[in-house]
Design goal:
With 280 residues, the protein is an alpha+beta fold. It has eight helices and 15 strands. The protein is globular. The two termini are 28 Å apart. The structure holds coenzyme A.
C-alpha cells in the first residue's frame, strides 16, 4: 500500500510490521546492491547485465533504511513494456513487497514478462495471463551446421530493426544499437541473431528468422567457438534440434505472460528466442 510520497521516492507501509519501507528509482550506483538481492535468490546476472537494463529501462527498488530488499526493472518499447528482475530478499518474502513493486510499474498499457513458477501466482493476481512458454538450454554446442550468417555492420541496422519489429511487434532500435555496441550481432538473408557474454557464458538471443531451419543455423553460428552457451527457446522444433546436439535444459520452463491484451504483439512464429527473460 502506497502511503505517501517524498523527495525521490515513495513510502510504502510494510504489511507485516509497522515499519515503513521506501520505494525509489534505482540508478547504476545501486547495481552492487541489486546483485546482492539477486544472489540471495541464486540469480547469477552480471553487473554488466544490470547496468544494461538500468540504462535501457527504469529500475525501482524497495529500501529498508539503506538496504535494498526488492527490485524490478521496466523496459518501455513503443506500445508494450517488459517487466523484469522482480526480486525480493528472502528475509522480506511473502509480506507484499513483490506485489507492491509490480503494481507500481503497471499502467493502462500492455505489459509482458517471463514468469518463473514463483512469480506466476503474483502476476495472475495482477491481471497477467499466460500466452506461451520458454525453456532454457545450456551447454557447449558442437561445431556443426550453421555458416549462413556474417557479422552485422552499422548499415544492417535498418534491416535488423525492421525484421525484429515484424517478429516482436514493436520497434526496438535502441536495444539493437546496444546489442551491436556491447555484444555480437550476426545477420543472414532471412534472419538475425545476437549474443552477449555474461559471467563466462555466451547468452544467445534474440533469434529472429523467417525459417526454423535458418533459426537453427543462426544458433549454430552464434555458438561456434563460444564455449558454454545459453538460449531460451520458444519453438519446439528448434528446441528439439538443440537438445539433439546434447545441450540440456536448465531449471523450470517460464511462462510468457501479458496484461491488457489478449496476446503479445507481432508474428511470434519468426521470434525463436528472446533477447533474455528480462528484455522479451
Ligand atoms: C516471486 C517474488 C518476487 C515474490 O515476492 P514477495 O514479496 O514474496 O511477493 P508478495 O509478498 O507480494 O506475494 C507473495 C505471496 O505472499 C503473500 N503475502 C503477501 N503479503 C502477505 C502477508 N502480509 N502475510 C502473508 N502472506 C502474504 C501473497 O498473497 C502471495 O501469496 P501466493 O504466492 O500464495 O499468492 C519472490 O518470491 C522472489 O524474489 N522469488 C525469486 C525470484 C523470482 O522467481 N522472481 C519472479 C521472477 S518472474
Amino acid at each position: 500500500m502506497l502511503v505517501g510520497r517524498k523527495m525521490g521516492g515513495y513510502l510504502i507501509a510494510h504489511r507485516l510490521y509497522s515499519r515503513v519501507v521506501e520505494l525509489r528509482q534505482l540508478t547504476v550506483a545501486d547495481v552492487p546492491a541489486c546483485m546482492k538481492v539477486a544472489a540471495d535468490r541464486n540469480w547469477a546476472h552480471s553487473d554488466r547485465t544490470w547496468r544494461f537494463l538500468l540504462e535501457l529501462g527504469t529500475g525501482w527498488g524497495v529500501f529498508d533504511g539503506d538496504e535494498l530488499v526488492g527490485t524490478t526493472v521496466v523496459t518501455s518499447y513503443s506500445g508494450i513494456s517488459a517487466i523484469s528482475m522482480v526480486l525480493v530478499d528472502s528475509r522480506y518474502g511473502r509480506q507484499g513487497i513483490g506485489g507492491e513493486l509490480v503494481s507500481h510499474v503497471l499502467d493502462s498499457g500492455v505489459s509482458c514478462l517471463y514468469a518463473t513458477p514463483y512469480g506466476k501466482p503474483l502476476y495472475e493476481r495482477l491481471g497477467f495471463h499466460s500466452v506461451g512458454k520458454v525453456t532454457t538450454y545450456s551447454g557447449v554446442y558442437p561445431r556443426d551446421g550453421g555458416g549462413i550468417s556474417r557479422p552485422a555492420e552499422p548499415a544492417d541496422l535498418p534491416f535488423v530493426v525492421a525484421l525484429d519489429a515484424e517478429a516482436f511487434g514493436v520497434e526496438r532500435a535502441a536495444l539493437w544499437e546496444g546489442l551491436m555496441a556491447c555484444g555480437s550481432v550476426r545477420v543472414a538473408d532471412s534472419g538475425v541473431v545476437a549474443s552477449t557474454l555474461t559471467n563466462g557464458t555466451t547468452m544467445i538471443g534474440p533469434v529472429v528468422s523467417r525459417f526454423a531451419a535458418d533459426a537453427i543455423a543462426l544458433v549454430c553460428d552464434a555458438a561456434a567457438r563460444a564455449g558454454q552457451v545459453k538460449v531460451h527457446l520458444h519453438d519446439d522444433w528448434v528446441a528439439r534440434h538443440v537438445r539433439a546436439r546434447g545441450v540440456s535444459t536448465v531449471g523450470s520452463s517460464c511462462d510468457l505472460m501479458v496484461r491488457n491484451a489478449s496476446d503479445v504483439p507481432g508474428d511470434r512464429s519468426l521470434y525463436h528466442a528472446p533477447v533474455s527473460m528480462a528484455l522479451g
